[in-house]
Specification:
Layout lengths: L5 E5 L2 E3 L3 E6 L2 E6 L6 E10 L2 E11 L26 H17 L6 E6 L10 E8 L6 E6 L7 E3 L8 H17 L13 E8 L5 E8 L8 H8 L6 E9 L11 E7 L2 E6 L2 E6 L8 H15 L6 E5 L5 H6 L5 E6 L2 H13 L5 E5 L2 H4 L9 E4 L8 H9 L4 E6 L2 H13 L2 E9 L9 E8 L3
Parallel strand pairs: 4-6, 7-22, 12-13, 17-18, 17-20, 18-19, 20-21
Antiparallel strand pairs: 1-5, 2-3, 3-4, 5-6, 8-9, 8-11, 9-10, 11-12, 13-14, 15-16, 21-23, 22-23
The structure holds S-adenosylmethionine.
The site of S-adenosylmethionine (SAM) has 19 residues, from helix 5 and strand 18.
Keywords: Methyltransferase, S-adenosyl-L-methionine, Transferase
Pfam family, one: tRNA_U5-meth_tr
Protein name: 23S rRNA (Uracil-5-)-methyltransferase RumA
Length: about 450
């Protein structure tokens, strides 16, 4: 097949995260977002080393997996969900097979314990980052998520089902307010305009809601009437804070040059496994609270006996894992690169009355050289790209008996497992945990033990 050629084929399987695989005459074609069993038309847009990538043009025949109607009116165009038309049971089977295949390719003789589902399929998110923009060039103001595969176009997600309806009421209120005012949105190419993002956090357990409007400083808009409108909404949860963040950064990232509190406070509380966490607007916190309880319980079970042990929680974020392990360990040391997250971890440990946690700010690669104590056990929960090879070498050099690796990207995990096995670790068991129903994402937990020397 040549670049630009149009073809048709049946998707044989989906490789993580969303790669539909089609084989035609010994050529493997990857068509993103195709579902197993679908007959699709595609256009070849890349060809390299016998591998082709095709862009999905049209679904000619539905997949037998698609046993139900989508529940959201934006399904298909919105970049958020991919699997809404597949039953949750089938989604779990699909993700389980993807994770198992990736680990089977690099590990032998380990126990794969299947997949654990999210306790709730809908309304599970405790945080959303919405973008302002338009759905079509020069169209009306939109507020929501990026269109599937698009860098610019935004779909208004006022009907989103993976969040509590409070999010939809807040989004609609904010969108209506700025539509009536005719306020401009920030254009990423020309760097002009005012409205950038709307961040909403809502504690699943506590119902506390924090709203954060992120804008440039290019206009001066009166936000008092918006604050009053938000406070007048009939929400199920409790709006505890409304913030306005200024961000003039050229990059399309949500960050703060300065922040003002328009109402209430700048944080919410959330509860996980009986512990309480104070979460500020930008700190990392797992986005599915009930799913996080399943993930962390699995990690705690995999860590095994911790009595009198010193545990390193590397890539510790706001210190959730460290604090869940601290009550059953001698001490836990967390290392995290985001200083604000480390400060939050310290506050949270105090809030939870834990005296045996220490949190260190910095890059794992550098910081582990500065820690004098040596761990007995290590928990790893790195970002999507996995662990820097040099940091992995240092982690392996500790020679601890057991390592638990939590991963949000099983392809990076598989790469790191190859190195861990080459350097003396054996994969004992693994399982997948689904924290993101409807979407392509999945978490994996792996227990490794040091081979006898
Ligand atoms: C997947 S999150 C895990 C957070 C935490 N374990 C939790 O469950 O809430 C990965 C964390 O690694 C941090 N991180 C990324 N690169 C890092 C590095 N080189 N050194 C230390 N932390 C890093 C990120 O800021 C993020 O908080």
């Amino acid at each position: 097949m040549k670049k630009g050629q149009i073809g048709e084929g049946i998707v044989e399987r989906i490789d993580f995260p969303n790669k539909g695989i089609i084989n035609i005459d010994d050529t493997k074609i990857i068509v993103k977002n195709g579902l197993t069993g679908q007959k699709v038309r595609f256009a070849i847009n890349k060809k390299r080393k016998g591998k082709c990538e095709g862009r999905l043009l049209e679904v000619l025949e539905k997949s037998p997996l698609e046993s139900r109607e989508a529940v959201c009116k934006n399904f298909g165009s919105c970049g958020g969900c991919t699997y809404q038309t597949i039953s949750y049971e089938e989604q779990l089977r699909l993700k389980e097979n993807q994770v198992k295949k990736l680990i089977d390719e690099v590990c032998e003789d380990y126990v794969f314990e299947g997949i654990k589902g999210s306790p709730i399929e809908w309304g599970y998110r405790n945080k959303m980052e919405f973008s302002f923009g338009d759905e079509v060039k020069d169209g009306p103001l939109a507020l929501g998520l990026h269109k599937k595969g698009s860098f610019h176009d935004i779909v208004t997600t006022s009907d989103c089902k993976i969040v509590d309806n409070d999010y939809n009421l807040i989004l609609t209120c904010v969108l209506n307010y700025f539509t009536e005012l005719g306020t401009s949105f920030y254009r990423k190419l020309s760097h002009t305009g005012y409205l950038r993002h709307l961040l909403v956090r809502r504690g699943t357990k506590t119902g506390e809601i924090l709203v954060n409007l992120v804008t440039s400083t290019q206009e001066n808009v009166d936000l008092k009437p918006l604050t009053d409108k938000l406070l007048a909404l009939d929400l199920q949860g409790k709006l505890v804070g409304i913030l306005h963040t200024n961000n003039d950064s050229l990059a399309d990232v949500v960050q703060a040059d300065s922040m003002e509190i328009l109402y209430g406070q700048g944080y919410i509380y959330e509860e996980l496994l009986g512990l309480r966490f104070k979460i500020s607007t930008f700190s990392f916190f797992q986005t599915n609270s009930l799913g996080a309880e399943v993930l962390y319980s699995t990690a705690r079970e995999y860590v095994g006996e911790t009595k009198d042990k010193l545990i390193f929680d590397l890539y510790s974020g706001t210190g959730t894992i460290a604090q869940i392990l601290a009550p059953i360990a001698k001490k836990v040391i967390g290392v995290e690169i985001v200083e604000e997250a480390v400060e939050a971890a310290k506050v949270n440990a105090e809030l939870n009355g834990l005296k045996n946690c220490e949190f260190i700010a910095g890059d794992v690669l550098k910081m582990i050289d500065t820690i004098e104590e040596r761990p007995d056990l290590i928990v790893l929960d790195p970002p999507r790209d996995g662990i820097h090879p040099k940091a992995l070498d240092k982690i392996i050099d500790y020679g601890v008996d057991r390592i638990v690796y939590i991963s949000c990207k099983p392809t990076s995990l598989a790469r790191d497992l190859v190195i861990l096995q080459e350097k003396g670790y054996k994969v004992e068991k693994a399982c997948a945990v689904d924290m993101f129903p409807g979407t392509v994402h999945v978490e994996t937990v792996v227990l490794m033990s040091r081979k006898e020397k």
